[in-house]
Amino acid sequence: MIKIFSSSLRCRLPVLVAIFEVLLLVLYAMFVTYDDSTNAARQTNQTDPLQNSLYHVYPFFVDVQVMIFIGFGCLLAFMKQYGFGGMVFNFLTATFAIQWAVIVQGFFQFYHDGKIHVGVFNLLNAEFACAVVLISFGAILGRTSPIQLLVMALLEVPIFAVTEWAILKYLKINDAGGSIMIHIFACYFGLGVSTVLYRPCLNEGHSKEGTTYQSDILSVMGTLFLWVFWPSFNSSLTLPGDDQHRAIIHTFIGLSSSTLTAFALSALLNRKGKLTMADIQNVTLAGGVTVGASVDMMISPVAAFALGMIGCTSCMLGYKYLTPFMAKKLRIQDQCGIHNLHGLTGLISTTAGIICILIASEDTYGPSLYQTFAHRAPVEGDPRLKELQELIPGLNPGEGRSASDQALYQVAALGVSIGVSIAGGLLTGLVLSLPVLAQPPDEFCFDDTLYFEVPGEFDNNVLPTRNHDMVAITD
């Protein structure tokens, strides 16, 4: 039996983009306006320009942009015949996700007076929502069309935004590096999508999944960009001052220890005692995730060092043993191993954060305990609050939680994040499986020729299909 699969994006992609952009144009026109830091009418001749939030937030915004567009893009270009897809679909999906997140997150966090008030801080928040989508993308890399990826971003951003809003508003947790709200959510959402889009024939490998010398070098460049800018990712939403300072130090220490551990384990677990590029590209980053939940806390440098080593080890073993098991036994294919780099390490990070919350005390933090753990501050009207405000002017009232109370809220947030992300991923996967979204057939997964005009020297075993919009597939 012969099926005819249309690989042409000539109608579907322009129509989908036109619908999305017109929708966004209308929403921006109706709801989006400047916040106080960007509105000229709010500024006066007496205003010190250097006090504008731009100068605090923009350096972090730029660093996270580099991670999203260059770091993720290069990292995903490791396949020998899917470099265009890895980098360009990352570019396409990220751009739309940020546009969409400004609107969706704005309604929950920055909406008042009938408008979404936008400044560079909103864009930074939108970048984090975008990062969630790109992490999820890693689970289905090479097995989806650009149309499917745009639809995934369309659905995932609102689900993430609602979950984030509910956790921040009602559970009020400490999660400076986004272990619960970014890494774990993105991981299990992506695995939920991948479960629905399961392809049994890919469990035995695919001829186009391999790498080349050049693609591995490009991918490790992405790793280096992510590695260098990860301290900005982890510290951008922490309190300015000593909290932010600790976050940067802990992230660097965690990354450095996970990197050295990754090199050692890569040689140890290789039968020939050689280094594996996939380990260098991915496992070296584990420490940045593992310190995330406790990154701004007084955990001590040695704890950050240990977390980097523990995260790296779990990530490495996950790649070697857990990913194949999940594909063959649980019908969960994880193309980039996001469960190892973001799921397992996110769970370790969350556990470490809970332990740090339980042992945090004024002996270690002084009165700033109630800044780092804002929800443990006394409630409004408590005499203790006035005493603390004399020591720390501007300290806000909290929830009066004990350490154990706060730890329980962290556990609840973890459960909510995992539950909602899995359910959302499964539902999104059902939508992405619709034939109209042009999911590529098994034979043309991990193949740029399906969606791109490629150079003449492109090395592909399926050369006759290179310049055709219709691909014949024998059943």
Please describe what this structure looks like:
This protein has 475 residues and is mainly alpha-helical. It has a single domain, classed as Ammonium transporter fold. The chain has 16 helices and five strands. It has helices spanning 12-31, 54-75, 83-109, 120-139, 146-171, 179-196, 213-235, 242-269, 277-282, 286-290, 301-329, 338-359, 362-365, 369-372, 383-391, 403-432, and strands spanning 2-6, 32-34, 111-112, 115-118, 470-474. It has a three-stranded mixed β-sheet. Helix 2 runs parallel beside helix 4 and helix 7 runs antiparallel to helix 8. The chain is globular, with a radius of gyration of 23 Å. Mean pLDDT is 92; it is low at 460-475.
Briefly characterize the structure.
By secondary structure, this protein is mainly α.
The poorly predicted ranges are 460-475
Instruction: State Rg.
Output: 23 Å
- How would you sum up the major sheet? 3 strands, mixed
- The helix/strand series, from N terminus to C terminus, equals EHEHHEEHHHHHHHHHHHHHE
Number of strands: 5
Instruction: Based on Cα principal axes, name the global outline.
Output: globular
CATH architecture name = Orthogonal Bundle
Mean pLDDT: 92
Mind telling me the CATH class? Mainly Alpha
**CATH topology-level fold name:** Ammonium transporter fold
Class derived from helix and strand content = mainly alpha
Strands of the widest sheet, in order across it, are: 2-4-3
How large a portion of the residues is in β-strands, by DSSP E?
Answer: under 5%
Number of domains as seen in the coordinates: 1
